[in-house]
Amino acid sequence: MKQSLRNFKDSYFFYSFKRDKIAVVSFAILLVLMIVSFSAPLLAPYNPYDSETIDILNSELPPAWMDGGSSTFLLGTDQQGRDLLSTMMYGMRLSVLIGLGAVVLQAFLGITVGLFAGYLGGRLDNFLMRMADIQLSFATMMVAILISAIFQTVFGESRYNDLAVPLLVVIIGIAEWPQYARTVRASVLGEKGKEYVEAARVVGLSRMRIMFRHILPNTMSSVLVISTVQVANAIMSEAALSFLGLGMPVNRPSLGSLINAGFEYIFSGVWWITLFPGLFLVVLVLVINLLGDWLRDVLNPKLYKG
Question: What would be the CATH architecture of the domain defined by 91-300?
């Protein structure tokens, strides 16, 4: 363990990270946001899911520093009387979980398709890549909205609300898998002609073993870079779907549903319900994208400028 830690500290990866101030600051902010969101049951002043702690008479209270505000509710309350700070902490946790779950599904589908298409080639490659091209020809949000609307029609709105989290993971995952498939396929095409793959064939290893045990690990650097960007995209997709009323319901707040819930009140002066969740969302997506840019430069020496 100590040796592994010492090797990590001496690695080029950690050296590059320490030298990049933007990456260090972005990682620190992201770490704080993750701790705050996943520790919401411990850190949040109130539980937005507990109706006993919610009083409708406290609805639409402004932030504590404004006239009419209360020190009890630092960032004010929403239209249901929930403490906005607590609701955002719980909501950010839901948004991040949906984003991570969607990226895991995207990666599983895309990596599998990309491996088979790139290694086996031929008609299978043509078929799988044409499927990816067809899906890429549609905007991601159009695909997500279509699938979400179909699920709501099939399950009904109340049932959809109960299954909102896993359904959003599936919806966003299905909409974004071609990004992984095309990238992995390109990497596989570059790897399958190399000596170690030829040696694996000569000793009689199966195609599945060659693909998943030998070729796949050599494509993971590109997959890792895509994943950081896709987490941010998935969080934004969830927020957009929730804003359109096709995502998380109001009683199960995410950052997107909070923005949607407060949007109709923003011109009446109750701006904080939309503004603060929007700022949280912008900061979260920004730091993830900045870390993704740094990771891309480090893992691709041709792009790294030192």
Answer: Orthogonal Bundle (1.10)
